[in-house]
Amino acid sequence: MALLEVRDLRTYFRTDDGIVKAVDGVNFTVEKGKTLGIVGESGSGKSVTCLTIMGLNPKKSAITSGEALFNGEDLITMSKKRLREIRGNDVAMIFQDPMTSLNPVHTVGKQLVEAIQLHRDVSKRQAKLRALELLKAVGIPRAERRIDDYPHQFSGGMRQRVMIAMALVNDPDLLIADEPTTALDVTTQAQILELMDRLQREFGSAIIMITHDLGVIAEIADEVVVMYAARVAEKGTVEQLFTRPHHPYTWGLLGSLPRLDADTERLVQIQGQPPSLLNPPRGCRFNPRCPYVMNICKQKEPDLRPISDEGEHLQACHLDEETKDREAAKLLAGTLAEAS
Amino acid sequence: MFRYLVRRLLWAFVLFIAVTMVSYIIFFLVPAEPARLVAGPQAPPDAVERARKFLHLDEPIWKQYLRFLHALSPITFEGARPEVKEPSLGRSFATRQEVNHIVKAAAPVTISLVIGGAILWMLIALPIGILSALRPRSLLDRAAMVFVLVGISAHPVWLGLLLSYFIGYRLGLTPLGGYCDLINPSTACGGPVQWAHAMILPWITFAILFAALYVRMIRANVLEAMNEDYVRTARAKGASEATVMRSHVLRNAMLPVVTMLGMDIGLAMGGAIFTESVFGLPGIGKTAVTALEGFDLPTVQGIVVFATIAIIVFNLAVDLLYAVIDPRIRLS
Fold this sequence. Notes:
The structure holds two protein chains of two kinds. Chain A is of the alpha/beta class.
């Protein structure tokens, strides 16, 4: 059984302008100890998907349906009490902005101890020892002294390490990381990714890594879900996605990657803007921006279906496979040509 | 910390000089003749002239101001060596009473009113503000907003008169006005029970406006704090809503409230004029009004000095307290 199985997850928000369909029928699974990457532009529904799994959406405006089976238990419909037992204990989350995600008026030690004591019946001293152990594990220098410091006394990268320590303190089975490196500078990003990679091997947690950075995906993920406008555009292993991408949107993402080995004047971009989720385009949601658009794309929304000879590789595009293989090969050859 | 205190006190001194100087200048710009008021409307010109001389009103304004400062300074330079003396605010033009005594008699009344009122307004504003933030747009929230509107719009004089008419006169539950000493009974009444009894209506009158303002402020702060990322982090850790509120939301939402509370209390120490007038409380505000009507400069200055010190002290207290409750603030 998969660790997490998300089935037809939908999250709608009531707003003054109408219903925003932020997540609209998303399916994926996460296996024990594996890393799933979720990529997409801002507003594609990646974060909301994970906040929905954690039950962290605003209660008043969010309408949720579908299932998120965690070890067979549905996180969406379970009692608040049971969900609280799981949150921070079996499923933990790291957020995008480490500058604001820690409470400024408590020491980091206190915040870690709180995370431990919410789930373990241990004394404050024992909890503090465990907290210290984790701070050391995430590479906070002089952790014995820094444990009594306040968040504002840490740099952004160090704060994100504290967040990671706090998430791992109860040895979770699943760690959800919502763009953990976006707010950090590039060298710190690399350090944090390396740290997460190492900790995953040590702790054996599965990870859902939300990002819009395909570089991060290539480095850390086993499987990838590409989201566009609240739906899954393509899903497969990292190898499949990087060697045989089958959705024009994925091509766009890959094409817009900056390359160290190519001498390009400016980055390639996907034309147009992501659609409004209040009123998404008819048919395929990518059709207004797609260079390969056909008549059917404007009429019928494509299903997410497997590619004929790769059963695990799913994509939602009307183009025929031959064309796609040809275009994908051209794209990859193009980047290869640039590289040489 | 020590350096911070020294710097703050130096600034306080500068502020103090500026405030008293400005109030002196304003007093002399007003076209009035205190000497005539003191001597009486029928007094012959030479009597008025004598009064002017006696009150040093014939001297230039800077000399009078220096005389005031010298009397106020705790050190005298009149002898061969500087000596320590008691600071004096001089004597009232109108009654020849020492202004020190006037302020000392009026201050406890205003302090009772303001501190009691502040406790009352926080007791009202905290629960209402927090609950209406927890349930925005609920019935309670809407009722609270009506209270806020009424509280801000209702003038303390009107409110005080209504309360004193209905509760004091018609129901006879409280005295109509007047003050009772808290500690040593000086007049007919005194002691904690009678003091509190006499102060109930003034406290309510004084507190309503602030309660209304604070309900709004607390509601806004709590709502804002509930949307902070660290509150989401706390929920993600598995904390219950009660824990999230107590240790993450409220702690942060109360920081600005502490600042406002200190500033408002300091300001109000300068006299809650309307409330004191309605209930005939002989506090700082009422004394100031009487002194201004009689162009009694020394008394007015005495009150300015008292109010300035109160504001400086409360602001300093807020800053020191803030450094304790908000770890991001370092006094340096």
